[in-house]
Each structure stands twice: as C-alpha cells, then as structure tokens.
Batch of 4 targets.
Target 1
Amino acid sequence: MPVAIIRPNCTSCEDCVDVCPTKSIFRGVDRFVIDTDSCHACGICAQVCPEDAIGMVATEGDKEASPEKPAPEKGAGRPRKSQ
Ligand code: SF4
Ligand code: SF4
C-alpha cells in the first residue's frame, strides 16, 4: 500500500492535519511530516493541501504486489468437480 509524504514546499499551514482520519500528520523540524506506519493512504490530505506538497509513494510491499508478479486467479489450479 502506498503512503503519503510531505515535500519541502510545505508551508506549515496545517490544513492537512485536521482532515487526516488517522491523525498521522505532525509538525516536524522545518515542515509537517507523516507517520507512515499509521497512514492508510486515503489521499484526503493531498486533496486539501494548497501547495500541492503531499504526494503518495509506493512502499516495499507495493513492489511485491506489482503487475510483474500478478496474483493467481481465484480457483486457478484447482481440479473441477465433475457432476
Ligand atoms: S493519506 Fe490519509 S491517512 Fe495518510 S496522512 Fe493523508 S489523510 Fe492521513
Ligand atoms: S496542507 Fe500542505 S502546506 Fe499545509 S501543512 Fe499540510 S502539507 Fe504543509
């Protein structure tokens, strides 16, 4: 699952803090930061940011589930029951 990250152009306006349903956005040293462990990638913060300072990035788990390795189809490989 991707997570949200805040870029250096954040102006610390705090608009994103109030809308985050998991309270994952905190004031950092020079800009706001996101706790990627609790962020569930809803994207609401990115929608409200007036500076376009929030982006969604892939995590290691996303690479494992990439299209190069598609999950097997449901029921694939199972013998069919004859009636
Ligand atoms: S993507 Fe959703 S959960 Fe993650 S920081 Fe933004 S508002 Fe919060
Ligand atoms: S809404 Fe955007 S500019 Fe405002 S604090 Fe959040 S990331 Fe920074």
Target 2
Amino acid sequence: MADAPFSRNSKKVSFLAPMQDITDAGFMRAVAERGAPGFAIAEYFRIHEYYELEPHILESVLLNPQRVCAQFIGENTEYISKAIAQIRNCYPQIKMLDLNLGCPAPKVYRKNVGGGLLRDIPKIAEILRVMRSEWDGCLSVKMRTGFDSDERFAEIFETVLAGKPDFITIHARTVKQLYKGVPNYSKIAEAVRMCDIPIIANGDISGAKKAREIIESTGCAGVMCGRHAVRNPWIFRQISEELAGLPVFEPTLADVRGYVDALRANIEASSDRMKYADSRLKKFLNFVGTAIDPDGAFLYKMRRAKGMDSLLKVCDEFMLDGGNAQKIFPQEPYAGVCSRPNHEL
Ligand SMILES: Cc1cc2nc3c(=O)[nH]c(=O)nc-3n(C[C@H](O)[C@H](O)[C@H](O)COP(=O)(O)O)c2cc1C
C-alpha cells in the first residue's frame, strides 16, 4: 500500500479535475504551460465486461504517471480486478488509481456506477475491498456528498474510509444537484474532522481567493478545479501564488488569445476531430467567454461564427483589436454571463 504523494501537513496541493472529452493530454499540456497543477485525475475508464483502456485516456495518464491518476468507473469487481492487473502488468509506471463515485449522468448512474453507487453503500465497500487488496499504488476516491441529499454523507464517508484510500476528493454537491446547485462545503470540513488522510475540495473553486477561503474554512489538503481551469488555465499558478502570499499573475486578453491557439492546435492535431474543429473549439470558448466581456457579446458572436476562420476573427476582435490585447483577463467570470445557457454545465 502506498501513501498519497502529499500529506495533510505538507504544502497545500492543487488538482486538475477529470473532464470527459476535455482533459486529454493536449489540454493537460496547454494548462501545464501556464502553471501546472500539482496533480490531475484523468477521464474515467469505463470498466465492464468488454472494457478497453482507451488509448487517448492512457496517453493523458502516461504524460506524467507519477502525478496523473487513472480513474475507473464501474461496479463489477471481477472486471475491476482484471483492469487493475492489466495496469499493473502493462503500465507499471502508473502510480495512482481513483474510483469514480460521482458521475451524475442518468445513463451512467442508472447502471449503478459513478454517482449511482452512493445509493448502494455495501457495494462501495465491496469494490474498495477489491481495489485496495489488488492495487499497491496510491488509491483515491472521488465522491459527491450523497445521491439526492447529503443526509447519509457520514455513513457513506465512513464506508469509503474503511476501504483505506490514501486520499479522497469530495465534490461538495449531491448527484441530483448535477453541476449547478450550491456546493455544501461544510461537508468537506466534516470529512476533514472525521479522518486523518488528505481531503481535496472540489466544486466551483472559481479562483485563487476562493481556493484560499475554502482551504482555510475546511482544513482540506488542497483543491481541485475543473470548469474554471478550462476558462482560466492560469488558475493553478494563481492559487499557488495566492497561498504563498505572492503577487498573483494577471494574464492579458492577448495571453488568452495565445491559449486559444494552443487549444486549436491540440484539436487540429487529431485527424478525427479536424472536420468539427470549430465546434470543438467553441466547446472550450463557452467557458473562456464568461470572462471576456461583461455583456456576453463575445459569447453571442462566437456561437454564431461559421467555420474556423470566422471563429478566430471573433477571438481577434475581442482579445486583440482596439486595445483589448492589454486588458487584464479577470480571475473570476463576469456575473450573469453564462457558459452554456441551455445546458447543465
Ligand atoms: C464535461 C465534464 C466532464 C466530466 N467528466 C468527469 C470524469 O470523467 N470523471 C469525474 O470524476 N468527474 C468528471 N466530471 C466532474 C468534474 O471532475 C468536477 O468534479 C466537477 O466539474 C466540479 O468541479 P468544477 O466546479 O471545478 O468544474 C466532469 C465534469 C464536466 C463538466
């Protein structure tokens, strides 16, 4: 059994959150170039009878296997054992493995995996018993506070602790809250009081100041950022500067334009994505756009751009032209500017 590569008493850590179809190796590189997080969890491997360790996910773990956790989502311990053996034998450089107890997509949780497992506490115990006995490396769990309420949080958390993970990440929302409900960070403080392993706080850690507030108010060992890192890839650098009491780096909109180029290059490097490169870039710009202008004009125009050239022209207009290049990219999104008005994210 290995310990986490950080402890409750060491320097506070930061994590890039796993995000399916977003946090591939190229995205991780684009973030690292702007101030790497301490650690990351990769998109999940769906473990079932015919599972495959998808090459693009493996690539993101193998990018930095001491610091990127592989993640499993699944409930069948026979297949989970098989996948652990495959990782042990074929990819011994992978050191960290995480169990997903949080995915809220109905088509996932209805199969009693991800967030669905929070309704089946004995099953959580069974899965962790198998994972702990067969995985020598660092084992972690990424969980939510409950399924449709956080009333059973203590019971679920005790069960997770009994599985002897080396650290636990808590997304401070229930499964039913999806990605929008107000996070209940008091559950993170409760978890910290209940154990002595590191607890990582997750859920709307939108900037460096908020990260410091959550660390101070909960006693957690670190923070994990997902969507806010897509908007602002400098967030991990800013968090470590804020925690060290140093001046916090302020990127300009020209720096953001450089980030857009890095995202585009990553998308275009993959031939199967070339055809839809502009719609794929828009997926990222929906997050970035919440901090470009207070009226949401960039988002409005960006969503209507047709083809890569006109999309990049809209980026130039708002990030470079007419003196915009020198403007500071704010650490927090503008109030009321919504990344995807009709979506849960
Ligand atoms: C598009 C998207 C995909 C996600 N995929 C995963 C995943 O594969 N595994 C996982 O544990 N969580 C996944 N999550 C949840 C995030 O890791 C994180 O817990 C959640 O977004 C809350 O953090 P945030 O407010 O910083 O974004 C995903 C979230 C989003 C928005």
Target 3
Amino acid sequence: MASESDAAKDGFPNGVDLTLHPTAQTLAARSLEFLKEVQNLTPGKELEKRLNRNYGPGNEYYEDFCKYIKQGLEEGWVATANIEGPTYRRGKISLPVAENLYMSLTAVYFDSQEEFSGQYHKHPYGEINCVVPIDPTFELEGLPVGENWQGAGWTSLGPGTHHYPRSRGGKGVAFFFLPSGRIAYDAKPGEPQPLSI
Ligand SMILES: [Fe+2]
C-alpha cells in the first residue's frame, strides 16, 4: 500500500498519472474499449439490465475491471482519499477527456458489514457503476432504495437521479463512469426523482 504520500492526501484530483501506474493505464485502455460499446446507451434501468445480462461476471471487461481495481488497491492508486476514515475512500482515476469519450473514471472503496450510507449526490447525466466485490458478500445499492442491492455486476442510475451510495457485506469497490464527469453534492434527500430512474 502507498504510505501517507501527497497523492494519498489529495486523492489525485486530476486523475492518476498513467505514466507512473501501468496498471491504471491498462485499466483506462480497457475502459475505452468498453465505453465504445456502450457510449450511445443512456444510463438507467434498461442499461443496468443490459449490463448485468451481457457484461456481468465471466465477461472479459468485467473480469478485467475487477482484476485491475484490486491490483490498484494493492499498488495504492485506487480510492486514495479518505472521506470518512479508511473505510470510505474515493479517488479519480481519469478526468473526462476525448481519450475516454468524455466519461470520467472514479473508484470508491467501502468497508462495512452493516448498511453504510456515503455522501448524498446527484448524477446530472446518470452513472454506470461496476460493482467490484473484495469480500464475496459485498453489495452496492442501486435504485429504487431498498429494492436493488447488487453484488458482482452493475448498477446504472439514470440522468438526474440522486441517492446515498450504500454498501453492505464487507469490502468492495464501486468503479464508475460519469458522462462529462458530472456529479453534484447539492442534492437533498426527499427531492423528487426524475420519472425514469
Ligand atoms: Fe451515485
């Protein structure tokens, strides 16, 4: 693991330096191949179903994403910034640029057996979320709240949705793509959701 380096404190606000981290470079390259396949699909329930049907465990993109994220945790460039101590951490991997079809790459690390709620947020353009269990019992929540716990596989929340990112069942990572990198922390619980989530 990385020590308390400057990089660990700032969580790589401009993304990981791919020239220093070959595994991150490989992850970014694989992500681009994947994004080329889904770039014209809108985040939301239909995409979530499609991803779980066609890109779930056993799919080579999914397996590679899990492998490189786990490797990145060991190498110390995944989710380096503590949000609430070491059990809830976040880090940008790539900002949205032409080379990734303007889809940012981010990882959030969770470690909680009990249901844990992270920072409330909204995705103006939706999100595509690869669920990477470290412990096999790890689950991340999609929407609707309380009805959609997802282990190994995917969640995808539609444009304008907002939620507490919730996890349970131990250690795991949410590795996600955001169109234009858009995420907003000014949403409030109780605000209406868009018609399509
Ligand atoms: Fe989210």
Target 4
Amino acid sequence: MEKPWRGRLAFLVLALLLPWAVGALESAALLPVRGDALIRTGGDLETDFAGEEAPVVALTFDDGPRRSTTGALLEGLAQRGVHATFFLVGEMLEGNEDLIRDMAAQGHQIGIHSYDHVWLTDLSAADFEREVGRTRETLRSIAGEGSYLLRPPYGGVDRGVEKRAGSPIILWSVDPEDWKDRDVERIVSHIVSNARDGDIILMHDIYQSSVEAALRVVDALHEKGFLFVTVEELAQHNHVELEPGKVYRCFYP
Ligand SMILES: [Zn+2]
C-alpha cells in the first residue's frame, strides 16, 4: 500500500507549482513582445520567467497621423519590437491610408480621437456621430473591423460622451505634456521617473521631439525591465474586461 504522505507531498508540490506554470503560460500568451524585448535589450529571459512579473505599460499617441513624424515613430517602434496605441484624428486620415494600414499590420492598436479634434462634451447626438461615428467608419474602411477605442480630445468626458461612446473610453495616468516645451530631455525624464506597472502614457506623434522622446523612453524603460503593450493587451494582462462607455485611466495590478 502506498504511504499516504507521498500522495500528499505530490499534491503539495503540484499545488505550489501550478500557479507559477499557469502564470508563465498566460504571460507568454498575452505578451508576445516579452521575449523580443528582453532578447534585444540583452535581458535575461530565464530569470524573468522564473522570477517576478515585469512591469508593463502602454504608450499612447494622440493627434496623428502625420506622415513625417508618425512614419519615423513606426520605424523606431518596429526596430524595438514595441506595440503602441494610436488615437487618430478623422480629418488626418485621408492621404495617410498606407500609414494606417502599416500601423495595423505592425500590431499597433488604433483608436478614435474625434474627427476635427474638438471637445466631445455637450454635443448633440448628430454632432457626436459626425465626430466619432464618422471617424470609426473611415477607420473601418481603411483598416478593417476593430474595437477602435475612444480617447476624447482634452480628456473631456461627460454623461453624453459615456452614453454615445460606442467603445471603452481611454484616458491616461502619465502625462509629460510633450506638446508644451517640446524639450526631449524633460519629457524623457518625466516619463521614466513616473512610469509604473499598469500605466497608460500620453504622448503626441505629431512632434519630432515627441517621437525622439518616445524612442528614448522605450530604450530607458527596457533597461529597467519594462514591457510595452497596447491598451487592450494591458487591460487583458490585468484581467480587466473593457466595457463600452466606461472610462479607464490605467490598469494597475
Ligand atoms: Zn489631442
């Protein structure tokens, strides 16, 4: 007859290992960039999988696309194996269709930042539709079906915006105000010193200074073990199910 403690010991070992194994599998499935980022930055993959969870953040870019700056940013992100989220302005879409298709094909997430970059608060249903619905339709015609999250310009949200959004509303938790002085050093240092696991970082890909800062931020945070994912991946990673009309600023674990 088998000694009963053996069964209990085997069970104990299994119980201890199971959460780790599930966690490792889950991270591997949800974070395809993990291996990439670590290998490229010379990180230690084994230590990472066996040890602590790496901090994960989402870089988001508003007000584009702008061919010169957005193109350079896409190139830099591709070199670094990083996926970001772009909230695009409807009136900037025409003539940039190839750029938007590249964005989608490279694994970035695309969202809506209104048609004319206006406040969405206090709009009639028809005006809201012209700003958000029209942009969503144009994006669908260019890049196909997608969730197209909403980021209202200026972060302006009221009951009307929540009611009519038609998708989750994504704000941010780190804002370097990169549009203000366009000082690359200051922008990089603001983000690198404030970023923590689960943050949504706000930037604007229409400035050369922001593109340069963003790529330096990626390099600096890679060095510190951070990983970059899209907003949707960040929510999923922290087991948050996004709901239409609901406002999200971060996904802290
Ligand atoms: Zn904006």
